[in-house]
Amino acid sequence: MRQDPSLAAAEFIAALAGVVQATDEAGTATVGTIRTDGGAINFVPRSVTFSLEVRQASTALLSTTVDALKQHLAMLCAAHRCDVSVTPHDAVVEEKDGVKLAVEPAFAAPVEFDRRLMDVVERACAEAGVAYRRLHAGTWHDAAILSAYVPTAMILVPSRGGVTHSPAEETAANDLVDGARVLLATTRHAVSALSL
């Protein structure tokens, strides 16, 4: 078998969801960028570099998942006679469509929001007649930063087709109105629930 980092990378990316969800079904992983170096249409590349973001609901699940992914990648690289190197992403500046993006830390511990406030949001949804479900968002929002200082929760409204953080993101007007109604009710109830 020839030394081929592109095959190792392709097999790793194809197996990613299965490895992550074997730890916890709510886990996600994203390869947002990938590039090869030294390759051409008929040349095996010298190296393959890709980004990887992994999300889980707890630090323990995240650590277990990352360890499993590293082991899987090492096994694939050995099979394809390649070396593997993992670099924290906070050392890399990204650019998209000519715009430099903010670089988040390579490791951000999952945040558990205030249960009292989550209960208040759930109550507000029920009062407003808005369908809801609790979920692990996994994203590193400003709310995660604020949660270290004040009781925090999030109210998310659906985007059409699940597309977010994109110029194509679109949310139906009635979903925005429902979100605002839930926010208003949450604000009213939070005062007593949090003894403010």
Descriptive notes:
- The chain has 2 domains: 5-100, Alpha-Beta Plaits (2-Layer Sandwich); 115-193, DNA polymerase, domain 1 (Orthogonal Bundle).
- Helices cover 41% and strands 9% of the residues.
- It is built from 5 helices and 6 strands; from the N terminus they run H-E-E-E-E-H-E-E-H-H-H.
- The protein has helices spanning 5-23, 59-79, 115-128, 142-146, 173-193, and strands spanning 28-30, 34-37, 47-50, 53-55, 95-96, 99-100.
CATH top level of the largest domain? Alpha Beta
Give the domain tally.
2
Helix content: 40-55%
What is the average per-residue confidence, as pLDDT, rounded to a whole number?
86
Report on the biggest sheet. Answer: 2 strands, antiparallel
In short:
The chain has five helices and six strands.
Reconstruct the topology from this structure.
Elements: H1 5-23, E1 28-30, E2 34-37, E3 47-50, E4 53-55, H2 59-79, E5 95-96, E6 99-100, H3 115-128, H4 142-146, H5 173-193
Antiparallel strand pairs: 1-4, 2-3, 5-6
Helix pairs in contact: 1-2, 3-5
Which descriptors would you attach to this protein?
mainly alpha, Alpha-Beta Plaits, two-stranded antiparallel sheet, 196 residues
